[in-house]
Every structure is written in structure tokens, then in C-alpha cells.
Amino acid sequence: MKLPLAATLAAALLLSGCGSERTPLQSGGQNAVVGGSAGYQPYQTRDIALNCIKGRGISATPVGRDLILLSAPGARIVFEADRGVSSGMQVRGQVEGAEVIGGAVFYVGSADTAVTSGVEGCL
Fold first, then answer.
1. What is the pTM of this model?
2. Which residues pair with 60 in a beta bridge?
């Protein structure tokens, strides 16, 4: 049995959406990176957060492409590829003592409330 061309095209169009992935842009939040996940680099989000944190007068130092060290002992922010990775780490118990905000894993260390609330507002 032959399907008419219109029915074949309709079926192909319906099936073309199967298996698509959500990109950081579709997930929204601070981790939304223009261009989707194909060219995503954690340091893009890190740099945005770093500028915000410094703009709030909090001492912060970038390390590598996905880390910010804060002045308080033990306080640091690690940027994962997206919120799915960081949430998965949290579910598996791999980020004990940290807050997961989007794709960022914020280890509070001995940072005081002023620092933590300032940083949280930037993530």
C-alpha cells in the first residue's frame, strides 16, 4: 500500500521531533547561553557570575574555565555544563555541603551571610 506524499511528509514531520535534546537556552535561568548547548562552555556562565559577584564588592578569583574561588576559606563555585549535571550530582550525594543553583555548585565554606546572599543573587 502506497501512502500519499502528504501523509508521508506529515509522518516524517511528526517523527522529526523525537529524540531532541533540551539545550541550556531552553532550560532557562542563568545558564541560558545563546546558541544552545553545541557551543556551550561553562566559563561563559562563570564570567557572567564573576562580574556580578565582583560588582557586589565580593572578592572572587577565576580559576581555569569553570571555577571561582571566594575569599572565605572553602568557599568556591564550580560551574557544570548545565543544571542537569549539577542536579544529578546533588541527587547522587556528590556535592555535600554545597548549594546547587542552576548549573552552579556553590560550596559555602565559611562565608558569612552577606557573601552567600550576594553570591546566590548572581547565580
1. 0.66
2. 70
